[in-house]
Amino acid sequence: MKNRYSLPERRWFLGLVIVGLIGAALIIATVTRNSDSSLPCSFSFGIRTRTRMDEDYNPTSIQLRAILHYATSRVVPQQSVSEIKISLDVLKSLGRPSKFLVFGLGHDSLMWASFNPGGTTLFLEEDPKWVQTILKDAPSLRAHTVRYRTQLREANALLSSYRSEPACSPSKAYLRGNEACKLALQNLPDEVYETEWDMIMIDAPKGYFAEAPGRMAAVFSAAVMARNRKGSGVTHVFLHDVDRKVEKVYAEEFLCKKNLVKGVGRLWHFEIPPSSNNATNGDRFC
Q1: Is 61 exposed, middle or buried (0-12, 13-18, 19+ CB in 10 A)?
Q2: CB 210 within 8 A of CB 153
Q3: Side-by-side strand order, sheet with 99-103
């Protein structure tokens, strides 16, 4: 991948990574300290022992690996510093280890995982060989291979026809096993369906040539996951490359301009409430 950053920008990026990692570590330390202090003294020895054992697997280790990796690598994440900061600020604002689903596995994956110490960060990638390449250098990352049923050249047809398929309708849409709705990612690992994600980043799959999967199904499925949320609060959805037509059109169709809270560069940030708080207009998501 061509390096889009000059030396000063690389220094800014490394600084951002370090600040983010320190902030995340402080959050984890605060949560741990508060939870320990709330327990009876009779349990203190067990808690201290468990904490020491956990330090061997402490997410701080992935933070240190991330700093070392980006400080010594010529390759940096594709998102700009200002784009990355949007997601980092949301992670920090949540104030706890979060559940973060990322469409795409690449040079920024170690960074995303290190920003969320103690949380669940899961990557979905369409290319099995690329998964092996990335995990070879960062084996602690958690990733699954995804098979897409769409191609970018179908984007217009899928957008104009999905309303005629009941399994795609806003009131009935679901993902697991949904063969009827081609936009639904129906064959993901159970973990994806059973987790209520706090944040979803869409920076994949490929969407720059006709035979590529395109991000139509990723956008639709992220919208369904967010709308089907049972817990309180919103789901933060980030979509990259909104300068491209398909990403922009599908975002406006399924993620909804009314849910757009911020946009920087080629990244849009949406806050999507559960469907119980999100009235729809008939067969439309927005």
Answers
A1: middle
A2: yes
A3: 142-145, 120-125, 99-103, 199-202, 235-240, 267-272, 260-264
SS3 (DSSP) at 16: helix
Look up the pTM and report it.
0.80
Residue 278 CA to residue 198 CA, distance in Å, equals 17
**Which of 204, 199, 200, 197 has the alpha carbon at shortest distance from 241?**
204
- The kind and range of the H/E element at 130 are helix 128-137
Q: Is the peptide bond before 205 cis (omega within 30 degrees of 0)?
A: yes
Beta bridge partners of 284: 281
pLDDT in tens, 188-211: 999 999 999 999 999 999 999 999
Beta pairing class for 267-272 and 235-240: antiparallel
Asked if 142 and 110 count as a contact pair (C-beta separation under 8 A), the reply is no
What is the Cα–Cα distance from 65 to 238, expressed in whole angstroms? Answer: 25
Strand partners, 179: none
pLDDT in tens, 69-116: 888 888 878 899 999 999 999 999 999 999 999 999 999 999 999 999
Q: What are the tens digits of pLDDT across the range 131-155? A: 999 999 899 999 999 999 999 999 9
